[in-house]
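Schema walk-through. Below, the input block comes first and the output block second. Nothing else is stored per chain. Lengths vary across the set, and this one has 263 residues.
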Amino acid sequence: MDMFEPSVPPWLSLLSATRTSLQESLTCVSVCRAWRDHILEMLKACILRKLQAQDEAIWDFLPDLAVLRRLSSPNDTCITAAFETCIKQVASRLKDGLHSSNKRRKIVDMLCRFAEKDNPAVTFALCACLDDDDRKLRQSAAEALGCLVEKNAQHAVAALCACLEDNAPDVRASSIKTLGRLAENDQGAMLAIRMRLKHRVPFVRCSAILALVQIANKDDEDVLNALRSCLNDVNVFVKREAASGLAQLAGKNGKHAFCVPAA
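--- output ---
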């Protein structure tokens, strides 16, 4: 204990070596603003060195860098630039082919937690994952696009529509759900989704119903008729989703959505 200065806690000198997380460090020193500021500067320097060194485990620092960015001054352009650089580097690891599928799924999850919406590098990296050999990675990427892309982003919508031909039903279902968030009033996407109302797997049909209700125009008779036809589906869950969807559309437009229009 006597080897440290009285004003500095012993664990502070070990922080860089042990890489205690920023969240834990700030909890330890919440009673002392001076120590907290010292830790912020210390971890800032540590993380920036890692970025400059192109460290292979750079994504390990992304959570701390995100917190550091939130706690630092809005005028700290150094931290903002470092955070954006880190996001780009992490996204690039999805495409370099040097990491296992499990590692890349963890990267997708990290981007979903920390990246900001409509980052081009992240969007293109996730879209590229939709063609990956790993089924779980394709599904994770499809779901992440729903969190990280604004509505009607054409590149993402087109990539997801292509993914509706995927051999894995869960990938198709996840792509459909994401299109339900992004492809508002997109006629091409709605047509592609309507075609999945006849898919052999019930949960894919359910996903298609949910997506159509989200993105279709309230007066779209093609969608209404497609949902009415699902009331005769052999699967009870598909029938239930169709009834629920028609009820929602009826509430939107004030019409009798369950009634098939006269010829």
